[in-house]
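Possible regression after last week's pipeline update?

I re-ran a chain I had predicted before the update to compare outputs. Posting the input and the new output here so someone can diff against the archived version. Not blocking, just want to make sure nothing changed silently.
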Amino acid sequence: MQLLRESLGPDIDIAVDFHAKTRTSVASILVKEIEPLNLRFIEEPLPA
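New output (post-update):
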């Protein structure tokens, strides 16, 4: 995702869908790690 952000620059919106495939402990780490990338949104990091 970081390479994508670097390649596209800050003016392009990027969204990520995790399809509810991560556990709570993993999702919290992922969200914190990708926060500096200024994504448009993160969808379904956890199961409903």
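Follow-up from reviewer: compared with the archived run. The chain has a mean pLDDT of 94. Marking as no regression found.
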